[in-house]
Amino acid sequence: MKQRGRYPNEFKLEAVRLLNEGGKPASEIAMQLDVKRTLLYRWRDQLNKNGSESFKGPGRPKADQMGELSRLRQELKTVTEERDVLKKAVAYFARDLR
Where are the domains positioned within the chain? Predict the structure, then answer.
């Protein structure tokens, strides 16, 4: 099984430029660059949508980072629920003091 390729930003920009020139069909450009045709279209759409901010950053977080992210989200949810309960308790006891 072929592993997913990582392509430099310059490569992606050049591929989109070739696609936009329209001199060759997308399938021919894809064969020359050894990428899937749909990937060329995805890069083009991403560039059109995000402009110069396209192809920045490392991409999707790694599995260990995703695990930590989900753990932190769960912890935030728990702490938020505890805070809400404490707010209600304070309001209840403050009402009795009046």
Answer: 1-59, 61-98
CA distances from 82 to 73, 77, 86, 93, 95 (A): 14, 9, 6, 17, 20
CA distances from 50 to 11, 16, 21, 36 (A): 17, 14, 20, 21
What is the second-level CATH architecture of the domain 1-59?
Answer: Orthogonal Bundle (1.10)
29-79: per-residue pLDDT in tens? 999 999 999 999 999 998 888 887 777 766 666 777 778 888 999 999 999
| 3 state DSSP class of 85 | helix
Residue 12, classified by CB atoms within 10 Å of its CB into exposed (0-12), middle (13-18) or buried (19+), is buried
Neighbours of 35 (CB within 10 A): 17
